[in-house]
Specification:
46% of the residues lie in helices and 5% in strands. By secondary structure, it is mainly alpha-helical. The protein has a single domain (5-146), classed as Orthogonal Bundle (Arc Repressor Mutant, subunit A), CATH 1.10.10.10. It has a two-stranded antiparallel sheet with strand order 1-2. Strand 1 and strand 2 form a beta hairpin.
Length: 160
């Protein structure tokens, strides 16, 4: 099984936001951390926002933050969100042209394997991936002094 780039970026984006929950992160920072296209990342961020996983803040000091606690974000659900439209094999596609589909027993085995894959991911929360993960934190963490935070009333934003 191979994950789509969108699924990979979605999980990485959520991890980046969780590690940096103390700030509003910028799309450009996430793209730089993962050597990813900002355009592709923007599509992923839009979907995450539409499903209330992240909040996006527009404008000069904008960015994104998690909308839920990491313990409330189920990794299996995120995978389904991005992988649901991608059939695992031709026989699961509406455009299936395989002549064996009526007699093939492999299809049921594949379906069971995919269901087991998702059942395994359903046991994982975003918090399981990021909490007490010092190596991940060292790779992704931005100190609050280096980035813009949400503006408070009558206060100035820290400069970069």
């Amino acid at each position: 099984m191979r994950l789509t780039t969108r699924t990979n970026l979605a999980i990485r984006t959520l991890m980046f936001c969780a590690v940096n929950a103390h700030i509003v992160v910028r799309k450009s920072d996430i793209a730089a951390a993962y050597n990813a296209s900002e355009n592709h990342l923007g599509q992923v961020i839009r979907i995450l926002g539409q499903h209330d996983l992240i909040a996006t803040i527009r404008g000069r000091h904008g960015g994104l933050q998690l909308m839920r606690a990491p313990a409330d974000i189920n990794i299996g659900s995120v995978f389904r969100l991005f992988e649901a439209d991608v059939p695992f094999a031709e026989c699961f596609s509406p455009a299936n042209t395989c002549p064996l589909v009526q007699a093939c027993r492999l299809r049921n085995a594949i379906r069971d394997a995919v269901e087991a894959f998702y059942a395994s991911l359903d046991k994982v929360r975003l918090s399981d991936l990021v909490e007490c993960n010092d190596r991940l934190t060292a790779l992704l963490h931005f100190p609050a002094a280096q980035v813009c935070t949400l503006p408070r009333r009558n206060s100035r934003l820290p400069s970069r």
